[in-house]
Amino acid sequence: MPLSALTGTRLRERRLANGIRQADLAATVGISASYLNLIEHDRRKVGGTLLVRLADALGFDRNALAQGSDTVLIEGLQSAASRGGALSVELTGLEDFASRFPGWAGLLVATDARVQTLERAVEALNDRMTHDPHLSQSLHEVLSSLSSVRATASILAETEDLDPDWAARFHRNLHHDSERLAVGAEALVAYLDAGSAIAEQGIAAPQEEVEDWLKARGWSFADATLVEGCDDEVAALASTAARSLARAYLARALGDARALPMAEFAQAVAEVGPDPFALAESFACDPLLVMRRLASLPDVGAGLVTCDASGTLTFRKPTAGFPLPRFGAACPLWPLYAALGRPSQPVETVVEMAGQGGRLHRVLAWATPGHPMGLRGPELREAAMLILPDDQPRQTALPIGSSCRICPRQTCPARREPSILSEARS
Hints:
By secondary structure, the chain is an alpha+beta fold. Among the domains are: 97 residues, 434 Repressor (Amino-terminal Domain), CATH 1.10.260.40; 66 residues; 130 residues, no CATH class. The chain is 56% helix and 10% strand. The chain has a six-stranded mixed sheet, sandwiched between helices. Helix 7 packs across helix 8. The longest helix has 30 residues.
């Protein structure tokens, strides 16, 4: 195993830290001092038995010598470079840069991580400002009260010969509207300055409250836990609607567990792989059931999104590199919606999410029709999309986004509205 250019620097730093002379170390490992000097200045690469002798003499193992903590820095720098867009980055010098300037390298990696965090925060805040029904209602109440106060005050100020009875009526209206304005403003401030836990989690709807609870549990329940129930955990949820949604989720998960016991299901996944269609055929069950069980397996690392016939997202389990919208409509190019329009037909696509450094995902979608009111009643459809990481080299992938509002792809034929990202750059 040849060492990288970082090895010479590590050798010299360790030798100096141990107080060993260059000539003494060279004699110990059986090479000349001049050759060791070339190694320490990254002019010669070293491997094999010499590497082992150097590692033993300096007191660290071969893997640490060849890789060390710089590996994390290099991976972080490569990740940051992948998000550089059109900027030209010298990737060939990353190892030497991380070795010679570890502080600057660490700062760049930390800054890139902070930028990603801030981007996600901007996306979440934009979604909240644009689609949050509670915020919209509070703002509407404040604006409505303001308009009424302004109209009434204008009449009182501009009408000199106003009848006393009408003046008294307008004064009463002004008093009533000012009270409405005060109450609405207090409600808006209270909502924006809610408890720290809600503010940090960004909970704005019962569905998000339930999803946050599931996230804290790792998105999975043991079959025995589902049988015993989670009454105490459900009772701890803040809203009545969230508790109702949680009970419905647990009831469905219990039905899934009884249909596909985890021990048997996990063994089948190990043999077949996380293919919901093959597994559904093997167990003779609905692919949606298999997708839900796959999403609850921690080792699979799959994301899952479900929607009803209106296209509204009813469940969101995210996965790395595939951000999901918190409010409003998702990207219309998602295979989820293709499956919704073609029930009982499998849809499988490799997609590339915008703004994720070219990361690919293998997405499998399925829609199941239902007739809960009989065949003469309306047809209800439920669709699910399983999101799996894909590290295979691909020539083509379907470019998609999270939602139009935060997607930077300006030439997308399915765009519904301008992106805030393009507005910020223009």
